[in-house]
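ok trying this again, last paste got cut off
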Amino acid sequence: MRQWSLKIKLTAWYTAITAVIAVLAVVALSKGMSRLQLGSMKQSLVRAVSLAAEEVDYEDGAVELEGNGEDILEAYEEITFAMFDLEGKPLYGALPGLHAPFIEGEARTVQSDLGSPQLVYDRLIAFKKHPAVWLRGALSLGTLEESVGKLHAVALFMLPVLVLLAALGGYGLARRALRPVEEMVGAARTIAGGEDLERRIPVPPAQDEIARLAEAFNEMLARLNQAFYKERQLVSDAAHELRTPLAVMMAQSEYALAQETTRQDQQEAVRVIHETGERMARQISQLLQLARMDMDKEPFQMETLNLTDLLEGIVQEMAEVARAKGMELKAELTPNITLQGDQLLLMSLYLNLLTNAIAYGKQGGHMFLRLWEEEGHILSSVEDDGMGIAPEHLPRIWDRYYRVDSARGSGEGHAGLGLSIVQWIVRRHGGQIQVKSLQGEGTVFTVRFSAPIK
């Protein structure tokens, strides 16, 4: 079954609503006109009968209209007058086809035996020396029915014309209103066909719902473009970073398998392969963590932690690593500082900062891990006295795969992912991280968190 387009649906709804409103308007107008005209006829009938009643009198034993009675009959020629005695016997005039009982002072509609209904008004006239009589005035409602019939005829003729005009106008309005949507669809198909996520959907000048829809689509395209760019960059950088250690492992394994290789050379080759494998494992782990962060699927479980105890455990672990590199790790930790956070992510945060300091420190150098509270904030810092970072490189150290070796020395075994992970973890905990560095003197990373309300 073929589905109607939105323009056709809007036109159909607009036309149907217009037709219903027109019909209701005709009905209301018809009833209103009938009520007003009927009210006017009742007033005219009551006035005429009341005036005629003042001119009724007996003459020579017969009841007649005297004085201005003839003038009243001429002025209200559409009204028929008749008089009856109390038993209903005609005394003056005639109202054929009307057999309704007499009711004093009430204008009412009575069905006539001869045709259209009549509007009837009765007046009881009493005399001192003669018996009372009934004066009845009757006014045909045929003119009222004729007027209503003409209105219905006009409405019956005009209604199809009005519906046609409504359909044409509704279609034009719907087409004009949906033209920006069609332009958006065309632009979206062009973007999808060319896979050019840099392009944007045109935003209509009118600040209406369609304009907001276009802006929302453009925001979505910008996020998709950023996501696709990160994905391509991740794949490209991962391939680039993993290619070198794979080449090293292949070369070392071929060397170890060579016949002329001694046992000592084979052990050295295996050691190199093992260290390279460990570096690859770290890189792959970081890549997976970055992928989870980009998809917002990194586990995040907030709990109350004793940050001091957590950092003491990290210091014990990293002190051995630092000594193996000929460096010394010192810690200044304020006791019993608590924080709302994810334990695993906070461990990753400080392990990355300390690993970074060890990688870019100097032989025989020192590292300092500090933790303290200040003005409602929890602050921590990781400081080294290594080569430092040149000012032009500082804004880029948070970029993924930033070539740290050109900024801070060799950085052997580090792919430039750690600081990106650090920044994400800090922001996820609602904190801030800053870096200060002087070439030849060292670098300080400072992390600031809001202290929990006690």
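PB: full thing came through this time. Confidence is low (pLDDT under 50) at residues 406-415.
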